[in-house]
Protein 1
Amino acid sequence: METNLSDTRPETKTVGESWVTTTFEALEDWSQRHSFWPFPFGTACCAIEFMSTVSAHYDVARFGSEVVRFSPRQSDVLLVAGTINDKMGPVLKRIYDQMANPKWVISMGACACSGGFYRSYHVMQGIDEIIPVDIYVPGCPPTPEGLIYGILQLKERVVRDRRRHNEQRQNKQEKLAPLENKESERADVGRAVPA
Amino acid sequence: MPTLAEPSLLEGLIGDIGAKFPAGSITVQENSDQPTWVVKREVLVDVAKELRDRRDTRFDLLLDVAGVDYPERTEEEGGRFDVVYHLYSVTRNDRLRLKVPVSEADALLPSVIPVWKGANWFEREVYDMFGVKFSGHPNLSRILCHEAFQGHPLRKDYDPARRWILTEADIYKPHFDLPDGEDDLFERMAINIGPSHPAMHGTFRLMAVLDGEAIIASDVEIGYLHRCFEKMAETHNWQQIIPYTDRLNYCSAFINNVAYCKTVEKLLGVEAPPRAVWARTILTEFSRIMDHCVCNGATLVDAGALTNFWYLFQPREEIYGLIESCCGARLTVSYGRIGGLAQDLPTDFVARSRKLLETIPKFIDDCESLINKNRIWIDRTVGVAAISGEEAINWGWTGPCLRASGVGLDLRRAKPYDLYDTVDFEVPVLTGGDVYDRFRIRMMEIRESLKIIRQLLDRGMPEGPYIIQDPHIALPPKEACYNQMEAMIYHFKLIMDGIQVPPGEVYEAVEGANGEFGFYCISDGSSKPYRLKCRPPCFPIFSTFSRLINGGSVSDAIVSLGGLNIIAGELER
């Protein structure tokens, strides 16, 4: 506990044997970066490699990111694994909007990062067209090692510049938003009403 | 020169069937790889019925419907589009291709859904991609592209990169086939599952009308992973398409490589050397094992049996090791090449494969001992989403799902390719047609695949080149490129211009992990395909999904999706 906390923030100090003084931000960083709850937005080939990463051989639990949650309300990392096309775009945006702050996005694989080699009429040329991305993991698909490296990079990022990053995110979100995102228009989505 | 079809029984029949229709309704197209009839649209449905029901034809399986666009063709020559139907007779093991020309001004065909139910989604796809309409179709709407899409992307005049943005206001409205008298939805509840839902594997959307827990009507929407494979194929040269084929059925990428390479080899009239064929057969079977592991693992996760998922993913990791040693990639291998393989097999290939033969059965046994007599599993799967063999054929099913319904159709046996006629293996057949049997049949097939691999390993690796020694098709070795002028020129020509494939059309299929996986390919003699249509085994199977789950409960629907092994990359291409 001591070393973990003190390597994150210089203001953390150990007093005596059983007391630690620190700031609330440092405590939050420390707890958050060691337990990501990813939402796997898996659509294609990358999702299979994500499954490999989670399963016994690579075991992403070693890095504190194995609590996979399929509810955006219960997760803090959106892990986009696979091609996102124009039909899926509004769904992804909606999932992202539903996640509570603070939240991060890992874009796994060439398709999510840039559309990959699908420069075509139905494929989004990178998910950063509609949502901000924190970590881009290249590869088609990335190896599990690559994805784990991406997760470790995200940990660093959480610690390093969280507050600045949140400010940037606010600005970024205002600039990006090609899709209509008003509550009133979204009310009928996700419910199947017979025509 | 492409290989031509052998004379078929059908040649005698054309006069017999043709006599029933006005003169000129059916003509035979010569110089094709398989019997091809050009049929006028007025008689299409009647000809289709005749072909399905006659005892000497029995074309009971509609494999594929493909559109082809010829913008230059005039009205006298038939009009702008061809709609191509590929038929297969399960009982007679025979194939037939029907071509129906249709003009742009009057792009309307009669729907063949009354003859083959599996035509439903195929016709929607042709409508979506080419704008050809089908009269009598119950729900002729876009299927792969989104609702706000304008134009028809596989027409030759459509710009491959022209995108349309979908807003949430435009999304798909479900089409429910409610039973009679059930149009009052006051007491009913309509639910939506997916596309971003773990039970829908991330890319499918199920909409259902419930009466209590029971589903009384449902609709399925796909297209959330449509990434334009066929348009991309028309804009890349023959070799560049191989990586795209990897990403069709990405659980068993190598099988796709083989299917595509065999199609182009058939057009070129060449064959891969023995060493490549041997390796292709072995790696195909390893890929099949991997695919079945994912399918069964995912089914069990959907049913809540997570432990088995760990057991079934471990053999995949072991096989990845072998594949990585061959080509450097794990999942999307791109190891096949037209005329052979991308590079030679590693020296320890046989030893590594033998080691796998020892380790894999352990995981399969562990999983089966947990599941086969498990009360919960049996209660949830026996009799769930059952379908008879006859009905499954009418819907266009092939592969393990069809074999679980009592029809022993397997291309490795029906039309042996590569080395399958030289090895001894069983084609497992079960009769339940439910989720339970679909699970079991995959486990049985894994054991058969291991048997095939063992026999081939015992035979030893054939000596000789791993790719065809023709500088017009395969790149010369690297050393030669750097040291010999001629080799360097060939290398340059192949990289810059690609392979020159003679004009022609072929259909070639292999037994993929989900069923008949084929390519229908038209070449106009240039360095790119004129049209490349993939025959995806998932597509007709998933079009049956509503029929399978109606009447069952929601939890039945969840558990039955996994057993069908729907891979979105291949379903939507």
Protein 2
Amino acid sequence: MLMKTVFSYAKPYKWPIIIALILMLIELSVELIQPLLIAKIIDDGITAGDRDTIILYGSIMMGLAIVALVSGVTNSFFAAHAAQSFGYDLRQALFRQIQSFSMATFLRFPTSSLITRLTSDVTMAQNILFMGLRILLRAPLVVIGSLVMAMLVNVKLASFLLIGIPFLFIFLFVMARKGVTYFASVQRRLDRVNRVIQENLQAVRLIKSYLRGVYEGSRFSKVADHLRKDTVKAFRMMELIMPVLLLIMNGSLMLVLWFGVGVVSTGDAQVGEIVAIVNYAFRITGGFSMFSFLIVAFSRAQASSVRMEDVLLAEDDREVIEPGVVENGEEKRGALSFINVSFHYPSHPESVLSNVSFTIDPGEKIAVMGATGSGKSTMLNLIPRIFTATSGEILLDGKNINDWPLEELRSAIGLVPQQSVLFTGTIRENLAWGDPEARVDELEAAAEKAQIHSSIQRFPANYDTRVGQKGVNLSGGQKQRLSIARALVRKPAILLLDDSTSALDVKTENALWEALEDERSTMIVITQKIHTAQGADRILLLDEGEVAAYGTHEELMELSALYRKIAESQLDEEVAEDGKEHQETLRLRTDH
Amino acid sequence: MEKNIRKPFGYEPIIKREDLKKGSKRKKEEVGDWKKALLNIWRLVDEQRGLLITVLALVLISSILTLLGPFLIGKTIDNFIIPMKTEGLATQIGFLLAIYAGTSLTMYFQNFWMVGIAQNTVYKLRAGLFNHLQKLPVSFFDKRQHGELMSRMTNDIENISQTLNSSFIQVFSSILTLGGTLAVMLYLSPLLTALTMIIVPVMFIAMRWITRRTGILFKEQQRAIGELNGMIEETISGQRIVKAFSQEQRMKEEFAERSDKLRRTAFWALTYSGFIPKVMNMLNNAAFAIVAGVGGLLVLRGDGIVTIGTIVVFAEYARQFTRPLNDLANQFNTVLSAIAGAERVFSIMGEDEERDTAENNGDIQLKGDVEFRNVSFGYAPDTDGYTIDDVSLHVREGETAALLGATGAGKTTIVQLIARFYEVDKGKILIDGIPIDELPRTTLRSQTAFVLQDPFLFEASVKENIRYGKLTATDEEIEAAAKKANAHEFISKLEEGYDTMLTADGSEISQGQKQLISIARAFVADPVLLLLDEATSSIDTVTELEIQAALEKLMEGRTSFVIAHRLNTVKKADTIYVLDQGKLIESGNQTDLIAQKGIYYNMLQQSKL
């Protein structure tokens, strides 16, 4: 159905819409009554020489003008309210829907395209509603009213006017359909423009350092040029409407004149009737010419509606998040097991993880190691169900994670991603992401553990220092520590650290691990560093998506050639320098 | 229902009394801005002005033809239908048809060309804005949300586009019709015309009252759209984190808040701008009443200045007079919102570009000698103090320098200063003995390769991403670079190898693999100066060891700055610089520093713990 889903969001505003329409009709009728009143003034006033009648009708006309103004102004309020609230509800629905997408569904839509849908497309739908409340009804009323009047004057002559109308409707229908296709491609081009700009903004340093400003400019020119061409194509198509419409209507008028002579000569019509019909024909043409505006607006709205409905109706695989639904209020113990878990990304058939099985006891600390691209990060993302395992089971406290309410599952997990993502806002606000109800001292305690508290205190506004988008004004290490603190604020049963200390210096990092010692949570730490791994209870070694080894440092040193290779890559030089001392520290570390 | 009926009057106002009070002053500034914005757009129309004049000529012709049609129909009725004459009727109707065909044709072509002109102008505006953005300093981008800037490129420019598309012709043809009708009215009765013109000052007062408000409101509306866009972009780019922390609810609330702000401003903008046609209508109706009433009284006086006939015809013309006036009023709104958009666009055009005083005197081949002389720099030195404080260092041609220090010590800032992303506040940076600000940026950056902390990959193929380092690189060069960077192996395992498309989210390859690609990019670039900022932090140590040799080879003969936390990477540097809170506290090679038993020595000890 045409825009059905989208326009269902206008339903709550049925009454403002109806009121706006009624007010518009009042305005229109005043306009139509005015000529009658002039006739009165002439016939009863001037011709009869009656001053009072002139003043009376003159005042009535003035009064009606004020009535029209009042209803017009009131109409503005209702129309603006209906259109804006409709747009608001629509945006809201789209945003909610996007928030409930699973990551897999989410990735089907490019970011830039979601942005266009939430802004430009909503505006298009909103425009047609607003326009509708002001002129939509007017155009058909004028056309139909004039036609009826013409028919009343003289059926025979007026029927010539009707000849053109079926053609007109077919033409308008075809144009509207073409318009939808053309404007849909305009919106898609807009997506591309948005994408290039977004990439450009994100990569500003890269672009500058490789001096690619000019290249980027030409890349942008290309997409902007596509947008231009498609817009021109769409509008030029639409500009056909008006001339063709005029031609058909004026052609019909010529028929009236041509046959008019004959009809008058046979006495079937009076000259005055022809004059009247010609007048009505002018009005019909005027009415139809409003259609060209409407069709452009309609086509754009329809094209945008389809795009919004793509999002609104994407039913597959939604995340059901019911806040507050907690199955068992007890704190999670944090026992985790993977049973034959395999996974591949929806867009790529190669499996990233295959048959991964292991168990972690509550409170245990596990280090995950493996080559770049061996599936470590992917594995972590499966635990809070950012992605869902393709096959196999993941159990939290003995229960399949798919059976936990999502909110409850995720609230038990503190994820620190590899790339720190911070949001515009103060440091406090960013930390409170972990737990919106956390008290100040809790936030500070988490910051302290994450070794960022003292840095924050050196900031000009302390915890109220503003962080730019993606944390641009912070150093890499500061971002990582903030993002660790954010996870600690949750007091999670399971803490997932995805190589989140890569930008930390050794001293800070050691202090961090020390502080985390006391955490009761189960920890899974992805790391490249052997000495970090040594601090863990067990080490999980991944190789091309499979578990290559699982055990303590000593066991792995003994059993896994791959692990030894990793260890050697980090130890050999140091051992060569002062091997003895190193042996000692090795032992010290494993004593923990 | 009841709520919905009261609601339209319950919106919290956007404009405060003070806004309008200081209005007179603000107004002046705004008028200045308008003129500037319009002038700027006019400049962009540029070489299309000839075509634009053609369009205007066509508008003139079609206006005349439109007026001619009804006139000739009247003649046809008088000359053929009333006398019931058929001979010559065919010619007459043929003539009329020709006129109507002419109307349609001129109308089509004026629009056809106007769309072209409008979209070319908009295209130039977009491209111009984008190219200007490329020249702005990094600090400009640090302060702004991406989505907000994107909104200027799309939503604001879209407003301009709509105005140019339709308003231009509309305004011109309305003015023509207005002038024509006014002339006829004056001819018919100067007295009644004068009476009708009473509405003109009222109209101006009303328009002023309205536009003073809509001027502010449209600007607020565009700002609200920009802010909303900023929030959308940020949330959607960080969707994973939103999910991991179950912050959907919070994002929804924040979105609702901004979305509501947009609703409020847009509501008022629409409401106020909706007044314009209503007021016009009212004035039109009033003019009608004046003509009929006062005109009628004048007829009664019987001095023959005004007759019934005059009133009838005049009333018709007064009606005609208001139609273009109404159109103009409607267009006025579109133009206002376009100007609000244009001002936002041009405010960016007005931002200062990266300072480049040096003349581009050909290609200077840099040798790669880098010296810092008492350099101090802060991102916001007045409030936050210096991030880099009085740092002096000298790295000679072909040497490797390692920067070490706690996070936030200023390491990244130093390399960013070498790439001249920022200008120093105090002191001097010399490249080959030339002060950095006397060196054209193109010279400096074309010979520098920067591997950034957060690798960025474009939504393009792997190949294109590597080629970014050197646009003219052949496929063989790309493959060779990938092999050196140890990226070849995993790339060949991808479904489509080097042609695999990467998505914005980039989930199909790991962070470490992204780093390998960006190292390959630097290999392809073949620079004199190499800046590696945590280039290998996410790469596993086995792979790192494997590319270590290649990296060393890459650094050979080039001046390199390396930031790394793994001391292995650092040890082989010619000089190690240890930074602490923006100050340089130790420097020397590995053996020197161990001998000093200072901070570096401590770090080395700790790394073994």
